[in-house]
Amino acid sequence: MSETTNTLTGVMSLSLTKRFGPWFFLAIGLIVLPLIFSSNISVYTMNLMGIFIIFALSYNMLLGQGGMLSFGHAVYFGLGGFMSVHFMNYVEAGIVNLPVFVLPIFGGVIGLVFALIIGSFSTRRSGTVFAMISLGIGELIASCSLIFVAFFGGEEGVTGDRTMGPVIMDVDFAQDIEVYYLIAAWAFITIALMYLFSRTPMGRMANAVRDNDERSEFIGYSQQRVRLISFCASGFFAGIAGGLFAINFEIVTEENLNALTSGVVLLMAYIGGVGFFIGPIVGAVVFTLLQTLLSNYTEIWQLYVGVLFVLTVMYVPQGLTGILAMHGPAFKMKRLSVLFVPYLRMGVPTLFMLAGISGFLEIMHHVRSAAVGETSMSLIGFEFDSHGVMPWVIVGVLAVVGGIVSKTQLPQMKDAWETANAPMDSNEGASS
Amino acid sequence: MFELVFFSLLNGIVTGLLLFMLASGLTLIFSMMGVLNFAHASFYMLGAYLAYTISLYVGFWFGLIVAPILVGLIGAVVERYGLRHVHRWGHVAELIFTFGLAFLIEEVVQFIWGKETKAYHEPEILQFPLFTFFGQEFPAYKAFMIFISLSIFIALLLVLTRTRIGLIIQAAISHPNMTAKLGHNVPLVFMGVFGVGCALAGLAGVIAGPALGTFPGMAVVLGSIVFVIVVVGGLGSLGGAFIASLIIGLMQTFAISLDYSVTDLLNLFNISTDAESALRDLWTLSLPQVAPILPYLLLVLILIFRPTGLFGKRES
Amino acid sequence: MTSAIELKDLRKNFGPAEIIRGVSLDIKKGERHAIIGPNGAGKSTLFHLISGRYNVSGGSVSLNGENISNLPPYEIYRKGLSRSFQVTNIFPRMSVFENVRCSLMWVSEYKYSFWHLVDREKKLNVRTMEVLDEIGLTSRQHVPAGVLTYAEQRALEIGIAAAGGAGVIMLDEPTAGMSHSETDQAIELIRRITAGKTLVMVEHDMGVVFDLADRISVLVYGEIIATDTPENIRNNKAVKEAYLGAESEDA
Predict the structure, then answer these.
(1) Which end of chain B is less enclosed by CB atoms within 10 A, N or C?
(2) Average pLDDT of chain A, as a whole number
(3) Are B93 and A131 in contact (CB < 8 Å)?
(4) Three-state SS at C219
């Protein structure tokens, strides 16, 4: 009986530090980040990250929490953006008098409304068919957006001015850093709300329907109703993310509704790890970095992202967060240090191999697409002639040697992993 | 008016048959393996590009034969080393994999061939008008497309229903475990069917490339329509896919050629509209404008009134 | 004595195949009723018809006097009928604790609430612990249900079905695949957990059947050939004929 009460107390009253600690650190982190990374490009990137974090988390309410794969989630994001930018223009025209920072709410509301309409028939099916329906609806609305010019602004989209709202406490949102704190505040609120949602009866049943939709019906829940509510909540938060996008960039176009954006949010959530609440956060951060930083160094960054995505799906379906979580047991047993040297021995040759392959692709790309006569290219600071033989030889050697050496290091890596994860004593709840 | 209907009918059939070539491969793969190949239209694109490159060196006809085979081989490799690996995590994972594959193939195509539209033309021997009706010409190449499409279907039908391998495939579709226990190499059958499905898509690309254009976005344009066809026709039903392909092909072609708008309809009832109202887009809506979204509207209607599709099998 | 479940000329066809051909049965409230029969007789199909998984092709099913034919499973559950499955049908990625808690949520009036936090709901969590205790899985509560041993999963399966306090509990081969000692424990669990309720059970293990059942119905080729007390069934000629030649499970 004491075990019962102990576990019960455990469930219900985690110590205050455990319960509120992460949120406290998140808040502090959000406040402090722009002080550390203060350049314009950093603030720009962080703003984009914040928007994508909310967007990807909303997507994971469907995929990771609810087991629903959607190829058309950008619809709610885009609609939220359009609604918010229209309200921005109403504010500017004096029709309504609202501070800019509440505008994302309208984005959320239209996301919710459309999710309700579309979800009413799309959530009747699940799995593959649901995915195809979401694709079709996404295309439908994206195509409609080019037809209904009044709301969607046609090919140029709709623009707005975020500085036209009432000035509160000297803030008129002219500067990106001011928008940063707006996004950060909204991010904190929505992350908290989405997390809390997952801890409600509805959130628990979403997991149950994901695991076994049929059985859910036999414990009293309509699987369609559960999916619909998840769908609506997800549309709501996606709409908020869209509204923040509208405020940040002051323009919303058909691109924000289309299949590419839907694909990007799937990619972000998946790379981060759909099985964890923070997975999409990790994925959004990584993808934004790839998009903003990597694109400065190489023209074929999208190719790299594509390869990364396919490799993730095939070999690391639990995502980046999953890889981190895999180290959990070793961390608890304080055996992480065992892995340090093996990781180096395996990691360095692998890095060389990747550098070689990437260099190969870069040179090939340059040879094929650079203007005629332009033969010099630069790669991580080195300038060389892409039509010469030497560069090819170098990257070839890097790739091949790196690959071979990595392969030889594989066994010792595996051994180290086993050692790090070997059970300490009996007593763990190992399945009998 | 009559020649409008006549040519729209012909063009609609050309489009419909082309769509069916894609949808049939997709349906075969889905029926067999339960996975909806998101990258199907990407293999279509590969077919067009490979045929283009081959035709640069040895001519169109060589490309017509070799390109689909190449695409089929690539498909088989993808199945063997990619899809089979992901299979253990279920259908959602397979779908995400094929989605990633579609994205990757598009990037690879741009990497290898560049972003511009390729000058992939039909062979000179087919560059003549087959007949002229009321002053409008019907290109021989389109007749060629109809010919190839129909031949493939007849061949497909015959193989599936009259040959031994066809029977094995049909068995493996509904009862893979039992078929394996009877000694048939089911993984090999899977690989073969996936390869053939992709080859069909590649063939569609080979013949469509000159007509519809060879550019990196060609997969996206057709891809979503093909999925709509498969859902509307009923997942797993070849007959349904055929009917749905024709319906959508005809629907779109007619919509593009009949330039009527909502205003025209309202004028019939003597209702006039305000050209400046916020709903002005709705009143000036014309059929050609709506043509791209008609397939998706059909999808929504089917989903509401007949969720398993026109000829779909009920999910157990 | 009122009837808990009443089947009137129940029929089920799959295409041309008649699986259930006119079953009429009256299960009394508080009774422990076992349904036995050779493989392929249609026992699981009968369960699916009653619990809402399949639609009926003919006849009717009534629960506590109310017609529940063709209602969706969740409505039947809400009216007080709960079932377990022959092939373990749990929520594999959720912990054992969560599995049980989910099965309690509807009957605890939470419905689709997204304004309560389950971790703070004292009564819900206390009741979950009680059920865990009853099915003997308290020590495994944080383990993902998918990694439990087979017998543990069967216990969880029964727990999920019975936790909600339904008045009528249907168990589909609860002891399938269990060893002798595991079966004995299962019998005790079933006896405890269905005390005061109506129990309908499909079983192959004759030992379990004769231990628990008040009455037994024998289903052969979609028809009930006999309904009687265990003693009379044991001596029933038609029942013996039905089992001779067909495979009879060892007790």
Answers:
(1) C
(2) 87
(3) no
(4) strand
Q: Is the pLDDT of residue A399 over 70?
A: yes
Tens of pLDDT, residues A35-79: 888 888 889 999 999 999 999 999 999 999 999 999 999 999 999
Q: What is the pLDDT of residue A430?
A: 44
How many residues make up chain B in this entry?
316
> Which residues lie below 8 Å from residue A399, measured CB to CB, with a gap of 6+?
A353, A356, A357, A359, A360
- The ipTM of this complex is 0.91
Q: Which residue shows structure tokens 């595991």?
A: C182
**Measured between alpha carbons, how far is A115 from A239 in angstroms, rounded to an integer?**
10
pLDDT of residue C102: 94
pTM for this structure?
A: 0.90
Average pLDDT over residues C88-109: 93
Give the N- to C-terminal CA distance of chain C in Å, as an integer.
32
**CB-based contact B279:A150 (threshold 8 Å):** yes
Q: What CA–CA distance (Å, rounded) separates A60 from A237? A: 11
- Kindly state the tokens that stand for A377: 């290219």
Contact A309 B103 (CB under 8 A): yes
- Beta carbons of C120 and C169 less than 8 angstroms apart: no
Instruction: Give me the amino acid identity at A149.
Output: V
The amino acid that residue A229 corresponds to is I
Quote the tokens at residue B15. Answer: 């489009």
B270: left (phi over 0), alpha (psi -120 to 50) or beta: left
Token pair listed for B243: 């009917």
Query: Are the C-beta atoms of residues C58 and C9 closer than 8 Å to each other?
Result: yes
What band does B177 get if pLDDT is binned at 50, 70 and 90? Answer: confident
Burial category of B316 from C-beta neighbours within 10 Å (exposed 0-12, middle 13-18, buried 19 and up): exposed
Question: Helix, strand or coil for residue C242?
Answer: helix
What would the two tokens of residue B208 be? 């469509």
3-state secondary structure of A387: coil
Report which of B14, C130, C146, C152 is spatially closest to residue A210, judged by C-alpha positions. C146
- Angle, nearest 10°, between helix axes B218-233 and B40-58? 130
Residue C23 CA to its chain's centroid (Å): 18
Q: Which of A264-278, B229-243, C81-95, C204-218 is predicted least confidently?
A: B229-243
CA dihedral B244→B250→B255→B257, nearest 10 degrees, is: 170
The shares of helix, strand and coil residues in chain A, as percent rounded to the nearest 5, are 75, 5, 20
Chains B and C touch (3+ CB pairs under 8 A): no
pLDDT tens digits for range A305-327: 999 999 999 999 999 999 999 88
| Residue length of chain C | 251
| Residue closest to C212 by CA, chosen among C167, C175, C249, C164 | C175
B115/chain A closest Cα distance in angstroms: 10
Instruction: Decide: B98 and B37 in contact? Cβ < 8 Å.
Output: yes
| Distance from C-alpha of A419 to C-alpha of C159, rounded to nearest angstrom | 38
Give the pLDDT band of residue B288 (cuts 50, 70, 90): confident
Residue A233 C-alpha from the chain's centroid: 17
**Cα B124 from Cα B122, distance rounded (Å):** 6
Q: What is the mean pLDDT of residues B11-17?
A: 91
Q: Which residues from A are below 8 Å from C169, CB to CB?
A: none
C-alpha–C-alpha distance, residues B124 and A219, integer Å:
68
Considering Cα of A174, then A180, then A185, then A187, what sign does the dihedral take? positive
The 3-class secondary structure across A158-191, one letter per residue, is EECCHHHCCCECCECCCCHHHHHHHHHHHHHHHH
Secondary structure (DSSP) of A397-429: HHHHHHHHHHHHHHHHHHHHHHHHHS--STTS-
For testing the chain A interface, which of B26, B83, B92 should be mutated: the one with the most A CBs within 10 Å?
A: B92
Of the residues B111, B229, B308, the best mutation for testing chain A's interface (the one with the most A CB atoms within 10 Å of its CB) is: B111
pLDDT class of A431 with cuts at 50, 70, 90? very low
